[in-house]
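Hi everyone,

Forwarding the result from last night's run.
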Amino acid sequence: MSGSSAAVRVSLVAIPDSMALPINGIYESLQILAGLALPDGNVPGFEVEIVGSQKGPLNTPTGLPINVHRSFDEVDSTDVVIATSMAADENDEWVTGRYPDAVAWLRDMHRGGAVLCSSCTGVLLTAESGLLNGQEATIHWAYAPTFQRNFPEVRLNLQEVLITGGTHQEFVMAGATSSWQDLVLYLVGRYAGHETAQALGNFMLFQWHLDRQAPYVSFTPSTGHGDALIRELQQWLDAHACTPNLVEEMVRRSGLAESTFKRRFKLATGYTPIRYVQCLRVEEAKRQLERSDQPVDEISWKVGYEDPAFFRRLFKRETRMTPREYRRKFQIPEFARVAPASV
């Protein structure tokens, strides 16, 4: 709708768990558009407001206040709703049923034709509405376990940074914390044209996460499954992941028949023993690539693989990047390697 005079109404959801940064970032990014020199001379209209349970100041979990412009009751319709990153409890667990007014309002806005968007953990609120059942969604990888426990009818895809769904693409979800920038670029492109989105990206130094989320995902397997024997073996693996013949050693340590052990391990962790070991080793390789200049072949050997070609294939399968690409993206640049200031 580039060149259209109709303003796009954008409603940012603010509840007590909401983080201030993405709300402020999205709000100010869309406001900045009005001052940009755009390629076709048209200024896209975005009317942005912050909505919540009640109008007025709202303290966020970090203590930074947000000013809620209007309450849910005051907003009968809007074009775009965005639920941004929210804090969970100390166990990264989402507890449903705490914000029934926000969930009901999301359903009302969807019935009225609004596009429902989320960034990071904001998708938890959207999922609570039931509207995502049967749909594909994404979220910050650290909150995948609580999402899957609470919303098993939603198909979670942690690989993608941004996912759209629904008959009319009325659901838009961005993954990890800073992916609200991808969401902004997507919405500007959708409603104001791709050249406008490019102009905003150039001005703000925003860029698409084209490599998706896979390189950022840390391997953090659950140990809260209740199987004490498997948990003990997981703890042993943490200290011995790079030693040879790990699966055979785990079978021996378990005292179980091999087939019984493998079945029990998969049931408890969600991974086969060999896949679990591979993920641990790739995670260690990521750390060494980030923090050292060791040759890739040497890192391959240190994490337990004598065949560097096999290691490279495994690493790319898990991260969607070669070891060299990963190092280039995530290693601290030379100019930033400064010693901490003494106090």
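The chain is about 40% helix and 15% strand.

Cheers,
N.
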